[in-house]
């Protein structure tokens, strides 16, 4: 079964199953990134060591933009669960368009947290998962490729808040309409928060970090990701930002009810 | 520690450690691919549904070429452990060149098994890991992106035979020179084969498929990769093709001894 099946895409259980699958992908990305040093040169705008003509950003920015240009032609950003970092640079797909029914509100593409996600990743997540500080200049390309993967997967996870929000809105329109009309941000936040579900996510992440973080045939070997860091990344960044997306999405939801 | 450290890159233990790390990467790729159907349209040359102007190959070929063009600018193919699928289309890096000492023989780039690896992947590996047959046309882009990752990682694994071969050659030049002069392919194959090491690899893969293939917090859940298939892929394809690379590399090794 595929998450984007239109008939079940707003089924909350289906959304949660997909979020569970994404945990594995993100953990695998963190493990790949953990093999390299921090490499801050990758993230530095106008780094003199990188000669990019007519470009103002970092090496990561340039590379991510190139990859998005390719992926856009593979139809990546027609999918409602994908959000580009460089929406003004992507191209038209070479594949025929998908006739996918509109399941999210008309303004969904305007909710784009990618710049925030990128800054968060660079400033807080990389220092936790990259074991060593320092540059490893000859690894800049490899680091950038893994960073792109990881950012795309974090972006998908966090913007999934839109599906969660739409499902919750559909399941209790009366309540949310009232909260939205009153611009009651706290009330919305309270209603979208399910502490039990969040605690379960963190508990599952602890187990997954234990299991995936070490070679199962050599348990005395190097630990690639610690449960503490993984839980911290989700508790302090991924979960709160997903909820921010949900609140922003819901606050505008009545625009589509005319 | 990074594999490509010039002083240890031909240390056989170091090479084996890197091969172990790659197993995880390849298993994670297989797991990602397992979520999708077979999608043979991705692999079909001149598929009428894909409108690629002036291009004769499959959708996968076109996409892989675009990605390689981006990656080449990130210096991917300057690294001796990377082998392009489209060597005639890649571009110059925008990063300064790495001053990496030549550790492999001068002809190493001429040993390129990528077409063979791609065919093998499409014909034998995808049918084993993609759970369902069928097309899932709306997923062609996602499938292609995962295929590219997987192919690049399989290619790195198999072409690692060059490092293995060079290390073995260095450790017993007398023996290999004699075998090479006699064009004794069987003798070379016998000397590079370490059945004990191969059995250990397969044993480790069985355990990894058990552990990584199922959600550790829901062991009754769906199994994403079976030990049987993973072992078969390595035993029948990955290991023999790595050895083919080793033999081809060694047979030409005296070209560099003049």
From TrEMBL, chains A, B:
<dbReference type="GO" id="GO:0046417">
    <property type="term" value="P:chorismate metabolic process"/>
</dbReference>
<keyword id="KW-0021">Allosteric enzyme</keyword>
<dbReference type="InterPro" id="IPR036263">
    <property type="entry name" value="Chorismate_II_sf"/>
</dbReference>
<feature type="domain" description="Chorismate mutase">
    <location>
        <begin position="142"/>
        <end position="246"/>
    </location>
</feature>
<keyword id="KW-0028">Amino-acid biosynthesis</keyword>
<dbReference type="GO" id="GO:0005737">
    <property type="term" value="C:cytoplasm"/>
</dbReference>
<comment type="function">
    <text>Catalyzes the Claisen rearrangement of chorismate to prephenate. Acts at the first branch point in the aromatic amino acid pathway where it steers biosynthesis towards phenylalanine and tyrosine, and away from tryptophan.</text>
</comment>
<keyword id="KW-0827">Tyrosine biosynthesis</keyword>
<dbReference type="Pfam" id="PF01817">
    <property type="entry name" value="CM_2"/>
</dbReference>
<keyword id="KW-0413">Isomerase</keyword>
<protein>
    <recommendedName>
        <fullName>Chorismate mutase</fullName>
        <ecNumber>5.4.99.5</ecNumber>
    </recommendedName>
</protein>
<comment type="subunit">
    <text>Homodimer.</text>
</comment>
<comment type="pathway">
    <text>Metabolic intermediate biosynthesis; prephenate biosynthesis; prephenate from chorismate: step 1/1.</text>
</comment>
<dbReference type="InterPro" id="IPR002701">
    <property type="entry name" value="CM_II_prokaryot"/>
</dbReference>
<dbReference type="InterPro" id="IPR008238">
    <property type="entry name" value="Chorismate_mutase_AroQ_euk"/>
</dbReference>
<keyword id="KW-0057">Aromatic amino acid biosynthesis</keyword>
<dbReference type="GO" id="GO:0006571">
    <property type="term" value="P:tyrosine biosynthetic process"/>
</dbReference>
<dbReference type="GO" id="GO:0009094">
    <property type="term" value="P:L-phenylalanine biosynthetic process"/>
</dbReference>
<dbReference type="InterPro" id="IPR037039">
    <property type="entry name" value="CM_AroQ_sf_eucaryotic"/>
</dbReference>
<dbReference type="GO" id="GO:0004106">
    <property type="term" value="F:chorismate mutase activity"/>
</dbReference>
<keyword id="KW-0963">Cytoplasm</keyword>
<keyword id="KW-0584">Phenylalanine biosynthesis</keyword>
